[in-house]
Amino acid sequence: MTSDRPGDAWRAAAIAPPLVKLGRDGGIVDAFLVPWDSEVFGFPVAEIRRFELAEGQDGRGALEPFDAWCQIAGVKLASCRLDHARLRESMAVEDGGFRFIEMVHVPRFDLGRPVDRPTTRLQISEAGTEDLPRLEAIAADAFTTGRFRLDWRLPPELGDRRYASWVRTSLDSPTQTVLKAELDGTLIGFFIVERREDGVTYWHLTAIAPEFQGRGLGLSLWQTMLDRARVSGSHAVETTISGHNSAALSLYSRLGFRFTSAQMTFHRLSEEPARS
To answer: Which of 144, 192, 200 is nearest to 169 (CA)?
Structure first.
């Protein structure tokens, strides 16, 4: 389960990706090069942060400035995420060579409600560099429904490396914390969390090791993390889940999360990467 944006180590190093304004005729196309993905993938990766057509604007040609910018930057993979109601924009990006990959959902739990007590007692603590090999191994195996795995044109090992790298960079983040979950001294899962200024705890990346799945431990872990957020003073918890992750959707429904919005994810590949 993932928000699809790695930790803030890039911002901490004062190399936050600059936003490029590429809209025209009243429309909005804000994009940036994605340094964390470009580093892992070995080629330039870009993301459209915001795309909105103006009233009456023809979608054809709206992405031409973005296309020219991608060509100059040598971008091989571009992504775009749109609210599910932005059908005009979705047709425009598909006209521009993007392909639909997944729908993602944003579940929210208001912590004024009671949280059920977990049936299994787990130990939660902040992870350190000594935990990194185990954490990276879990991250590389856990996200089989992530968008990089869903896009059959991309080598699956790229997505695996990307999530492992995400954990590593988040250990140095000034705003995010990597929390490890242990059962009788064995590290079984992790959460990358952020306490936002609005009082919401955001779960950026959450995982339980595949060998511990299907044993009811996920429910206990998520209940434990909800209670931890409540004790910390947060008034709500939010996260993001791929619509293909049926197990996670079921878990969040069982926990009582409300699904507040949905977004469409699109990819455009100018050249398929070589497979290792």
So the answer is: 192
Residue 252 in contact with residue 241, Cβ under 8 Å?
Answer: yes
For residues 160 and 164, give the distance between their C-alpha atoms in angstroms, rounded to a whole number: 6
Kindly indicate the confidence band of residue 115, based on its pLDDT and cuts at 50, 70 and 90.
confident
- Domains of the chain and CATH, by start: 9-104+265-269 (3.40.630.30), 108-262 (3.40.630.30)
The H or E element containing residue 200 is: strand 200-208
pLDDT digits (tens, 9 = 90+) for 156-171: 888 888 988 889 989 9
For residue 64 the two structure tokens come to 């031409």
Q: DSSP string spanning 72-84?
A: HHT-SEEEEEEET
Side-chain half-sphere of 218: how many Cα atoms within 13 Å?
Answer: 20
Question: What count of Cα atoms within 13 Å lies in the side-chain half-sphere of residue 179?
Answer: 23
Structure tokens that stand for 135 in this block: 């954490």
Please state, in angstroms and as integers, the Cα–Cα distance from residue 156 to each residue in 13, 30, 47, 64, 140, following that order: 29, 28, 19, 30, 10
The answer to whether 203 and 134 are in contact (CB under 8 A) is no
Q: What are the backbone dihedrals phi and psi of residue 268, each rounded to the nearest 5 degrees, phi first?
A: -130, 125
Q: Encoding tokens for residue 257?
A: 């999360």
Across the chain, what does the average pLDDT equal? 90
Q: What is residue 58's DSSP assignment?
A: -
Q: Token match 């109601």: residue?
A: 85
Could you tell me the two tokens for 137? Answer: 């191994």
Name the one residue in this structure whose structure tokens are 């571009």: 78
Average pLDDT over residues 89-116: 95
**pTM, to two decimals:** 0.87
> What does the pLDDT read at residue 3?
56
